[in-house]
Design goal:
mainly alpha, 2 helices
């Protein structure tokens, strides 16, 4: 095992889902990182949309 890595336990179904998400030659680590990045972007987008819906904006020329 490479330095700086760890082992995690997954159900076989979860491992299969990760395999299906990934591309050929992609490691499980790469697949998980990609999913985390996509989830982070989605969360950021949802926060931004909430701000746009709930907040009042003042045009800069009115400040």
């Amino acid at each position: 095992m490479a330095s700086g890595t760890t082992t995690i336990s997954l159900h076989k179904e979860t491992r299969e889902m990760l395999r299906r998400f990934g591309s050929k030659g992609q490691t499980y680590d790469e697949v998980i990182r990609e999913l985390i990045e996509k989830a982070s972007i989605k969360e950021h987008d949802a926060r931004w949309n909430r701000i746009l819906e709930d907040e009042e904006f003042v045009p800069l020329d009115e400040l």
